[in-house]
Amino acid sequence: MNIFNFNNLTFLMGSYVIILSLLIALFAKDYLKGDARKKYFFRWFSFGLLSVTLMTFTQNILLMVILWPTIGLSLHKLLLYYPDRPAAKLAANKKWLISRLGDFFFIAFIFFFYKALQTTNFSEGIKTALLFQDSLKNEIFLTNLFLILAVLTKSAVFPFNTWLPDTMEAPTPVSAFMHAGIINIGAFILISNFELLSMTPSLLTFLIIIGSISALIGSAAMLTQVDVKRFYAYSTIAQMGFLMIQIGLGQTTIAMLHIMAHGFYKSYSFFKSPSAIEYNQRNFINQKEKIKSFSFSNALFALSINAVLFFSSLEVLNYFSIDKPSSLFLVFIFLSSNIIFSYKTSRNSIVNSLKKSFLIYLSYSLSYAFIFQITKDVLAAPTSSNFIEYTLIAFFTLFTLVQLFKERIIKSSLGRNTFIHLYNGLYIGTIFNRITQKLI
Q1: Calpha distance 243→317 (Å, rounded)
Q2: End-to-end Cα, the chain, rounded Å
Q3: What pLDDT, on a 0 to 100 scale, did the predictor assign at position 385?
Q4: Is the pLDDT of residue 420 over 70?
Q5: 345 Cα distance to chain centroid
Q6: Are 383 and 208 a contacting pair, CB within 8 Å?
Q7: What's the Cα-to-Cα distance from 416 to each of 373, 409, 412, rounded to whole Å?
Q8: Domains in the chain: boundaries
Q9: What secondary structure, in 3-state letters, does the chain show?
Q10: Are 388 and 326 in contact, with CB atoms under 8 Å apart?
Q11: Residue of 387 and 224 predicted with greater confidence
């Protein structure tokens, strides 16, 4: 029985983990220069990196049940980098409690997986499940249910996302490692074993619903934050929600691209966070003066230019004879709103925004084509329905319009009240804080 699984997908994920960790280590070397606890960081960072790397390549569920808690242990120690700070203790303890709940779900998954399939190996279990899918229908449902619940608790997805915005006390390298690396491992398990998940379509729909809620809450709460780390935290919550949507839709290739793109982007965001704070402080007043009134002619112009770029990117995928992912429409929506917002804030920035959109479309299409080609023999084919995909696209289009008109919405009493509730994360964190303080 093979304990580890070496294929194009695991090598791709393993390369991503190692490259990203190297960048974080180089950043931490300078960031923590002269810090008395620098060795403490690198000791637990290395331990976490080793566990994540082994978790990427293993297909043995018994080894996973050892490695996943060790990843949580390393993160717990890193969150307690400043052990005398009450806020750091509360965030670490809250994460510890939620992780233990995730461990319970994963142990339940192992129980039903072994009971139904008589193996501790993912690959062998999936082969058996495919052969006896009809007779093992209920057992496979429970197996997938507890696997999904375990991943949700470990990935800061609603309603288990409350600990992430409270981790501001940790040093920036810890935040980068947490947001860009550790938090993605659960989603990778779902992607690499999607054949098992595809046997329970109802649970894929459940994953889409939970992912949508997490994406909406994260995206909306992100817009209300004034602290840069809390802003990035809610951004990560939203991205984890989008990632679950993609997996639920069966878009495993695009989900893999999402993990890597979000990881590199989020680590870069944390690397530059000090300069971002200075920039915002310097330009806040001037930026307020630049905002212009919104007009539909501006929106029409932006959408027209962006549509040309969008259809050009489709032609890139056609050139490689690759099916077009529905998530590309979401990229179109996002970039359209970005262009419109740029036009609102500055007459000249729309040119730079269009240049940026062109580069994003080009890199997105080429990256998708690259990952598709090297993982097409490993990843399962998409299984979702067009109805669900286009419903989500319409829903998030509506949400994007709300974001564009948020200056007008927030002037109403309902808008102001909603702003306050979103700023406080809908008070879900307060509930978990009270539970944590009672239990620990």
Answers
A1: 21
A2: 41
A3: 55
A4: yes
A5: 28
A6: no
A7: 48, 8, 6
A8: 9-273+427-439, 292-404
A9: CCCECCCHHHHHHHHHHHHHHHHHHHHHHHHCCCCCCHHHHHHHHHHHHHHHHHHHHECEHHHHHHHHHHHHHHHHHHHCCCCCCHHHHHHHHHHHHHHHHHHHHHHHHHHHHHHHHCCCEHHHHHHHHHHCCCCCHHHHHHHHHHHHHHHHHHCCCCCCCCCHHHCCCCCHHHHHHHHHCHHHHHHHHHHHCHHHHCCCHHHHHHHHHHHHHHHHHHHHHHCCCCCHHHHHHHHHHHHHHHHHHHHHCCCHHHHHHHHHHHHHHHHHHHHCHHHHHHHHHHHHHHHHHHCCCCCHHHHHHHHHHHHHHHHHHHHHHHHCCCCCCCHHHHHHHHHHHHHHHHHHHCCCHHHHHHHHHHHHHHHHHHHHHHHHHHHCCCCCCCCCCHHHHHHHHHHHHHHHHHHHCHHHHCCCHHHHHHHHHHHCHHHHHHHHHHHHHHHC
A10: no
A11: 224
**Pick the residue with more confidence: 395 or 256?**
256
Rg for the chain (alpha carbons), in Å?
A: 22
* Strand partners of residue 121: 60
Condensed to tens digits (0 to 9), the pLDDT of residues 342-374 reads 555 444 455 666 666 677 767 777 787 788 888
pLDDT of the residue at 286: 47
Rounded CA-CA distance 167/57 in Å is: 29
For residue 109, pLDDT over 90 is answered with yes
Is residue 335 within 8 Å of residue 285, measured between CB atoms? Answer: no
* 5-8 CB contacts, 8 Å cutoff, 24+ apart: 5/57, 5/58, 5/59, 5/122, 5/123, 5/192, 6/57, 7/378, 8/374, 8/375, 8/377, 8/378
Q: Considering the chain, what percentage of its residues have pLDDT values greater than 90?
A: 15
Whether 357 contacts 338, CB under 8 Å: yes
> Tokens at residue 127, please?
């082969």
Which residue matches tokens 């994920």? 13
pLDDT at 338 over 70: no
* Most confident range, picked from 109-113, 263-267, 309-313, 406-410: 109-113
Model pLDDT, residue 362:
74
Partners of 58 in beta bridges = 4
What is the number of residues in the chain? 440
Q: Are 221 and 212 in contact (CB under 8 A)?
A: no
This prediction's pTM: 0.82
Residue 386 has pLDDT above 70, yes or no: no
One-letter identity of residue 322:
I
Q: What is the dihedral angle through the alpha carbons of 332, 235, 19, 329, rounded to the nearest 10 degrees? A: -10
